[in-house]
Structure formats: structure tokens, C-alpha cells
């Protein structure tokens, strides 16, 4: 099998899966399900790649396992967090804006777009697994595994700490500034950042340096599009204390609070 055949097959699989998910969203009148399946989509791509390549090499097995663990945790967490809460306000606003056209507009601007992003970002996993047997893991590969572990810790622990904070009845209008959130305003996004740079380093020594666009795109999305920028666009209106929190705490990369406390 040629690599081009592999990635085009996976692209077709993603488009088919996202099209099916879109049809389900029309049925249930909730486009938010696309977010719940974001991590799961990468798991599907990784397993489809393993099925086509055999995935018998240690690097391929590691890439498959790490992607699966990350994707299932993320989708499971989002499903638990959003269950029963209805459609996300972003999609509600789109639905109000486009009216009767939303059903097909959502296919291109939400489902197909996310599918294409998923395919491009997952190229690092697809290439790393395809070329896995060509070279040993080496220093950069094990460094990538270590970076991935740091990322998984920040993302999973950060989500857990925020969930506990929101579950308390006395936090209305308050700001989460404890635990990992004391050192970065977005430990979960920083964790996701490390996850994908870790996977890149693990895959890169298997003739996959060219896939650097994958973690770069994910970093751009986390920092400028669907991550930090979007979340902080109106948060001070809902949580006035956030302004002081911003002055004292790094937005992304963890560091000690500015007040030295």
C-alpha cells in the first residue's frame, strides 16, 4: 500500500463518518454532537490506519495507544459534561442566523470543516504509523512520549479540577484559580498542545518530520480560534474577577502567579 492510498482512504472514511454524524444532528436538532465526537474521530483514524498497515511495530502501537487514550478520554469527558444541556450556544446562534438553511450550512461549515481539520491534524499519526518500522524510536521519540504524558496530565487533571469547581454551589461568578489553574489560565488547552507536539516528536523520527503542520495547526486553533481567544472573548462579562486573574496568571504556558504568592 502507498502512503497516498492510505491517507485518501482515511479521508473518505472521515467524510463518510462526518456525513453520518451530520444526518444524526439533523434528526436530534443538535449540532453540538460534532464536538463530542472530535476526539473519537481521531481514534477511528488511528485504528483505520492500524488495520491497513498492520501496526506491529512499537512506534505504531504507541501512536495507536496514545491517540486512543487521548481521544476516548476527551470524548467521554465532553459527553459527561454536556449530557442533557442541549445545543451549545455557538450553534444556536448559527441556527438563528441561517434559519431554514442551517441544515445544509452546518454540513459544510461545521461537520465537513471539522472532518478536514481532523484529517490534516491526524496526518502525524497516520504517517508515523505507516513509516513506523523504518527507524528506531530514539531520543526524540521517547522525548515525544514524555511530552505527551505531560500533556495528558495537564488536560485530564485540569478538566477534573474545573469539573469539581463548577459542581460546587458557591462558585457562581467566581474564578477557578487553584490547582493547575493557578499556573495557567488554560491547563487543558496547554495539555492538548503538548499531546500533539508529543505525538509529532514520536512520529517524526519515522520519516514524518514533514507533518509538523499538524501540531502547528492544532496550536493555532488552541491559541487563536476555538481555544483561548474564543473562551476569553466574553468571560469577563460573566466573571468580573477574571480581569485580575488575567493580570496574575499566564494565559497558556504554566508559570508562577505574577504576585509571587
TrEMBL record:
Any matching Pfam family: DUF1295
Transmembrane segments: 6-24, 36-55, 61-80, 101-125, 137-158, 189-206
GO CC term, one of those recorded: membrane
Record InterPro entries: UstE-like (IPR010721)
Statement: the UniProt record of this protein carries the keyword Cell membrane: no
Source organism superkingdom: Bacteria
Keywords tagged on the record: Membrane, Transmembrane, Transmembrane helix
Coiled coil ranges: none
UniProt-listed PANTHER family: 3-OXO-5-ALPHA-STEROID 4-DEHYDROGENASE, STEROID 5-ALPHA REDUCTASE C-TERMINAL DOMAIN-CONTAINING PROTEIN
Protein name: Uncharacterized protein
Amino acid at each position: 500500500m502507498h502512503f497516498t492510498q492510505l491517507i485518501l482512504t482515511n479521508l473518505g472514511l472521515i467524510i463518510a463518518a462526518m456525513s453520518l454524524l451530520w444526518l444524526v444532528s439533523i434528526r436530534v436538532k443538535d449540532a453540538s454532537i460534532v464536538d463530542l465526537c472530535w476526539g473519537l474521530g481521531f481514534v477511528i483514524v488511528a485504528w483505520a490506519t492500524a488495520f491497513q498497515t498492520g501496526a506491529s511495530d512499537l512506534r505504531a502501537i504507541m501512536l495507536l495507544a496514545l491517540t486512543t487514550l487521548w481521544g476516548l478520554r476527551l470524548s467521554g469527558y465532553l459527553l459527561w459534561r454536556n449530557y442533557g444541556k442541549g445545543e451549545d450556544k455557538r450553534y444556536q446562534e448559527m441556527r438563528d442566523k441561517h434559519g431554514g438553511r442551517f441544515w445544509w450550512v452546518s454540513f459544510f461549515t461545521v461537520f465537513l470543516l471539522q472532518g478536514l481539520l481532523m484529517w490534516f491534524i491526524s496526518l502525524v499519526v497516520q504517517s508515523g504509523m505507516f513509516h513506523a518500522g523504518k527507524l528506531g524510536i530514539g531520543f526524540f521519540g521517547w522525548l515525544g512520549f514524555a511530552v505527551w504524558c505531560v500533556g495528558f496530565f495537564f488536560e485530564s487533571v485540569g478538566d477534573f479540577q474545573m469539573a469539581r469547581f463548577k459542581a460546587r454551589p458557591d462558585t457562581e461568578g467566581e474564578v477557578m484559580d487553584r490547582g493547575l489553574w493557578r499556573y495557567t489560565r488554560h491547563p487543558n488547552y496547554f495539555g492538548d498542545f503538548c499531546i500533539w507536539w508529543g505525538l509529532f516528536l514520536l512520529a517524526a523520527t519515522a520519516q514524518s518530520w514533514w507533518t509538523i503542520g499538524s501540531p502547528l495547526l492544532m496550536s493555532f486553533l488552541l491559541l487563536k480560534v476555538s481555544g483561548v481567544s474564543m473562551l476569553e472573548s466574553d468571560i469577563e462579562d460573566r466573571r468580573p474577577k477574571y480581569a485580575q486573574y488575567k493580570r496574575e496568571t499566564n494565559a497558556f504556558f504554566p508559570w508562577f502567579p505574577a504576585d509571587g504568592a
